[in-house]
Amino acid sequence: xxxxxxxxxxxxxxxxxxxxxxxxxxxxxxxxxxxxxxxxxxxxxxxxxxxxxxxxxxxxxxxxxxxxxxxxxxxxxxxxxxxxxxxxxxxxxxxxxxxxxxxxxxxxxxxxxxxxxxxxxxxxxxxxxxxxxxxxxxxxxxxxxxxxxxxxxxxxxxxxxxxxxxxxxxxxxxxxxxxxxxxxxxxxxxxxxxxxxxxxxxxxxxxxxxxxxxxxxxxxxxxxxxxxxxxxxxxxxxxxxxxxxxxxxxxxxxxxxxxxxxxxxxxxxxxxxxxxxxxxxxxxxxxxxxxxxxxxxxxxxxxxxxxxxxxxxxxxxxxxxxxxxxxxxxxxxxxxxxxxxxxxxxxxxxxxxxxxxxxxxxxxxxxxxxxxxxxxxxxxxxxxxxxxxxxxxxxxxxxxxxxxxxxxxxxxxxxxxxxxxxxxxxxxxxxxxxxxxxxxxxxxxxxxxxxxxxxxxxxxxxxxxxxxxxxxxxxxxxxxxxxxxxxxxxxxxxxxxxxxxxxxxxxxxxxxxxxxxxxxxxxxxxxxxxxxxxxxxxxxxxxxxxxxxxxxxxxxxxxxxxxxxxxxxxxxxxxxxxxxxxxxxxxxxxxxxxxxxxxxxxxxxxxxxxxxxxxxxxxxxxxxxxxxxxxxxxxxxxxxxxxxxxxxxxxxxxxxxxxxxxxxxxxxxxxxxxxxxxxxxxxxxxxxxxxxxxxxxxxxxxxxxxxxxxxxxxxxxxxxxxxxxxxxxxxxxxxxxxxxxxxxxxxxxxxxxxxxxxxxxxxxxxxxxxxxxxxxxxxxxxxxxxxxxxxxxxxxxxxxxxxxxxxxxxxxxxxxxxxxxxxxxxxxxxxxxxxxxxxxxxxxxxxxxxxxxxxxxxxxxxxxxxxxxxxxxxxxxxxxxxxxxxxxxxxxxxxxxxxxxxxxxxxxxxxxxxxxxxxxxxxxxxxxxxxxxxxxxxxxxxxxxxxxxxxxxxxxxxxxxxxxxxxxxxxxxxxxxxxxxxxxxxxxxxxxxxxxxxxxxxxxxxxxxxxxxxxxxxxxx
Length: 1021
Prior knowledge:
Blueprint: H1 3-14, H2 16-21, H3 24-33, E1 54-56, E2 62-64, E3 68-74, E4 83-89, E5 95-100, H4 118-125, E6 159-161, E7 169-172, H5 175-184, E8 185-186, E9 194-195, H6 197-200, E10 221-225, H7 232-243, E11 248-249, H8 252-255, H9 257-267, E12 277-278, E13 285-289, H10 300-313, E14 317-322, E15 336-340, H11 346-359, H12 365-368, H13 373-378, E16 390-392, E17 405-408, E18 418-424, E19 431-433, E20 445-450, E21 453-459, H14 460-468, H15 473-480, H16 484-494, E22 501-505, H17 514-527, E23 537-538, E24 552-553, H18 579-586, H19 605-614, E25 622-626, H20 630-633, H21 638-644, E26 653-657, E27 670-672, E28 682-684, E29 694-698, H22 717-727, E30 734-740, E31 745-748, H23 751-764, H24 774-779, H25 786-793, H26 797-805, E32 808-810, E33 817-818, E34 821-822, H27 835-838, E35 877-882, H28 895-900, E36 906-909, H29 910-915, E37 923-927, E38 932-940, E39 947-951, E40 964-966, E41 969-971, H30 975-978, E42 1012-1018
Parallel strand pairs: 7-40, 10-11, 10-25, 13-14, 13-22, 14-15, 25-26, 26-27, 35-39, 36-38
Antiparallel strand pairs: 1-2, 3-4, 4-5, 6-7, 6-27, 8-9, 12-23, 16-21, 17-18, 18-19, 20-21, 24-30, 28-29, 29-32, 30-31, 33-34, 35-42, 36-39, 37-38, 37-42, 40-41
Helix pairs in contact: 1-3, 5-22, 7-22, 9-17, 11-15, 11-16, 11-17, 23-25, 23-26, 25-26
């Protein structure tokens, strides 16, 4: 804590009594005199507050302080990536303050119209206009984590390991040397020959001629990133695909993959992976399921703001279902309710609600009976489902598990034939195509005759009904840990508000049955017809055309290779198409596969490591990491970390691009420095968190502190990959690399060559934005970009500068609704039954997955009950993690954040603690079947008696929380960063899997980091 802050706290403590009887101004004046060693504040009222960047006079005139530059950009303090306004001291070039960007819907609600003058935006946030709605905010992280820029533990020059992998001993080297060694390979560490990337990049020779489906040897380069911060498209499209590899994964499998995959099943799109968010602004009844707006989820700040406003100013009532009481519930209002639940009890609760709703006919029958998009338009509905579509249930039939359909000729030459599904017409009870009727029967279980053949069919709705009826309400209640009366009340209340209901879920579903948990939770919204409605559920407003737009196609470039071959993590492809399956089937035993496959999952980063270690389906020869710390973020990663320490037993070459030496980059061979916060490039759309179009952009607004490349560019992820791509002579790099829609080819030598063109696409999409004025160029510090903008964007440079000045491009709030419908609506059928899931088999057992939500007990991947590994009698409690309001994995290196929130605890219910003889402050140990955790006990009423909670983001052993040797210097760890404990130490491995793979969701492979069975014991002093 700095001296000024410490003195101020002493001062305020010293005048507490005076404050009770004096005015606010008198209090502050007195505080200014209570200074150690005679120190006085600069001002008797404002103390040592920063010099304001501007003032607004009574007549509304904005007076700017010429000593500061004000820039609208994107925050990197967490995964939300809000829009912010950064105050930069021109003399020092340092960021001194961060506020919200008033143009950005993630930071202001309502937000300013996009074409509002920059000066007018200053007046607006200073109190002009509607004083109730003119705030633009940042969270605690947003106004703290920019201290990462000047963090003493930052990596500023390339590092090469010395000694063994994982010893945290490094030698600074030049970028040129790093690239030369990475490209050429050799005996780099005195441990024997290591193939360089040039040798690995072979796009024609197969990895394994006996398994041609593995693809070429270039697939033996993998890449793992952190959350997409706006640069992932560059990594994938401009580098990895040019190299010739499909093997890219990001952090989703350890963050929210179960939610994403379950949402994709519900929405019937396993390619784009869309997901849903409630319309917090107009919702009347909301369920926050396993998450808390304002604390977790994405965009957490906006959701918290909208929830608070709708609770106070509108009709919103809401429930938060979590094992632990959060700030989302408060006794200050009678509109919120907390329902405590056992970790992993949410699937049972959701299925119990589905059963009650169906049994009591509280579903929206008229809506669910709509069979097609044509009928949806006829009834002016916001969405439609496949609830009435007929599924073949005839055992042994070639179409078993598939929808009954009629094939139609392709619309265009070369396309696959189309399908039109069948239903039972509502009035006549006859078999009909869904396009030939506007209303179909819901509960169907019969035989139909088609082409002279009798076939047993059931409707999707009937299959859901049967799944829900497999357990009684009492059983669902007991399994979930939620009293039956609360289960019934919740289902009753949820179906009492028409379409104006929503559900928000996220990381609470990250357990062994999280995929079906999400699917079941979202199915509740379909039963009442909430999707696409004002106050209901939204798939988001979308974004402006960016990487592929009106001026450039930045995914296309000459000689871009087309790579065939399965991914290392065995995702996006069914096991039944593999050469392994064909061989085993010919031998009469197609199952089990050597390990699990995940055909309806987009990527699983932990599978990269386990697959390479086990050599199944093949090994990686090199792994590129960027800002990835999966060793910290993955429950059970310690089993993988030990293997990674041996290059020959795991991955021979690991390159990490990272601004810090984190828990994962400690295991790398080379570390390339990356830019942080306001030094970086990026472009993103909000994660379905807004109802209107939004594109948030980021460019370097302060001079990056890293060393520079030979052409003067600061070293970062983008510039490193450009130089590496040119050294490897990859297509898409160099002089003729970028395709314009005008038919010309443009160069790629610097990050701006790509990102300014992405910005230009956004600026020119639809109706182009206006040109920026000279005054706004000066205010926003964009004059220094004038030459570069003119060189790259030619005649459109002022339009690009216009969106840079506003931190992106944002559609008006008036575009959110179309009467009582959302303006942006999901066009496809909502999947009450998902055919892809229902026809996929578990590669270890051959068992079909359920195509509708179904209760599954906690299990291993092969279906073995988790209780067989973790006996509840021996491990009676379930440990879970929850998000901190301020600390996150991404903000661990911020000392300012640690001043706000220093450490964490192990949270236990007071009654449970009393039975175990525990008290606050005791040192306790949690034990799972495969791990242990030691921490400080905190007893609290607001937690389920069978749950143990650990706040996430603490207990670090990287990013300054470990001793590091760089050259001849030893950097000692920061005790504050190492404080607290880390729940992922408890992680289990799955004994039904090959090797020691961390426990995962049996259907989609997401890391099972919640609901870990544990026992509790006191540690003797």
